């Protein structure tokens, strides 16, 4: 059997004060610190909203799920609207199995996640 791994990649864009952090490839323990930093920095900087774009993620391990929960808590504590656009197979389904879909602000696509963040500027909590 051949292992097929997709290297993780991170990038960000900002539109109307909302920072979208694009996380793609196989996300696991090795890249968790980079992902945490990429998403936590704008939250700590107090931007109005942050979207974690995991629509191009091909694999997530439990470390990444822990990072998503940590980021959600950080956003709540700082009044930053936060949302996750999740690949249905690699991200959303495992989060549903774990029951984390009841805690985390998950959306099927990036447009919905951005709209959810933009819709809550007064409470700044998604």
UniProtKB/TrEMBL annotation:
It comes from the Bacteria. Coiled coil: none annotated. Residues 17-117 form the STAS domain. It holds the Pfam family STAS. PANTHER family: ANTI-SIGMA FACTOR ANTAGONIST TM_1081-RELATED, ANTI-SIGMA FACTOR ANTAGONIST TM_1081-RELATED-RELATED. This is STAS domain-containing protein.
